[in-house]
TrEMBL record:
Pfam families in the record: CinA, CinA_KH, MoCF_biosynth
Entry-linked Gene3D superfamilies: 3.30.70.2860, CinA-like (3.90.950.20), MoaB/Mog-like domain (3.40.980.10)
Gene: cinA
SMART domains hit by this protein: MoCF_biosynth
Protein name: Putative competence-damage inducible protein
Amino acid sequence: MAVAEVCRAELIAVGTEIVIGQIHNGHAREISQELAKHGMYVYYHSAVGDNEARIMETFSIASRRSNVVIATGGLGPTQDDLTKEALAKFLGRRLVLSQEALADVEAYFQRRGRPMPEQNRKQALVIEGGEWLPNPNGTAPGQYVFDNGVHYFLLPGPPLEMRPMLQNHVIPRLVDHFGGSRKLVSRILHFCGIGESDVDANIADLTCKDNPTVAPYAGEGEMVLRITASGPTTEACWDLIRPVEEELRRRFGRFIYGVDDDSLASVVLTRLNATGSTLATAESCTGGMLAEMITDVPGSSSAFVGGVVAYDNRVKASAVGVRAETLAAHGAVSEPTARELAEGVRERLGATYGIGITGIAGPGGGTPEKPVGLVYIAVAGPRGTRAYELRLHGSRAQIRIRSCKQALWRLWQELNGDSVAGADTQTGRGEKG
């Protein structure tokens, strides 16, 4: 029985602006995901600047280890657009003018009532023996060349031009050649309140599997597990994923708050809406970041009443109602202050729940008694107020992000009736979750 050829794809992003970090290489993720949907896998990603010799070298390396090479960028009309020229030189082929491609480029300018600049003729040059790929959204036709067992695709850099070409010309050709019969499906489980190492130590029997695979990933203030299965159909993939997900939920159910595109903010808002409840926030060290996380979720206005950035003690007192004697006796960074922030903003904004956050995000401002990373969170609601002490580690940005996620996590527990009974003070060591 003949064995079908396996797609071993490689992606090359061409552009100095990518190499020096001015723009993000979003194509790598998008093209990888699209190929995976059709059971074809990307083995390598690389980026190279606008230098002909280095682009040729990158094609040379790719040709020795991959049978599909997709390059994006460098197809424009200017002198530093060199992708096509570099591939032609590497393959030892000429560039020839395609009258069809030229007519397509000229038509693009005619539709806009403008004459085509002479330098745009360069975009109608096609590698000898290759094919040009029409680009209805721009002036840079794509290219397809097959040489010595390798399929080369050259696509324009602008996303609105690249995507249609990928969907209409690259994917169909690859599926026709490689079959694309196998599907790839992933399930993401989101965890909070537990460290990555604690999870990893208890899933060795699952991470050793080949299909489905289980892989942990750390995030700021939380972690995720990705379950990925391949199979002849999407349903066959899900048949492999379901028992693994069920087992993970059996082991870690109380720490799993969502799946796939869920976020802590989105699941909290979903629960608030389901119960007809509302939320208000009062933030000190996080400076409005919690409110931003919440309002990043579309439709958040249905449950989020509003927030107060109570950075200065005078604002804590005047806007939220923290008592002067509380601040004098315990300081701004204290459990009593967090409680009064939560209770005060809940009362003043007329919300079902209130969250208060106060702490020392650093890098300065800490003392031996109150070090950087000391954060107090309080959640006030119909069942009373619970406060939590966190001792977080990391940069100022990390401490602020982790504080916000811990606040949402504590509220999520409260909304699910899963808060820690009889333990109003918790210590969070800040290990990624």
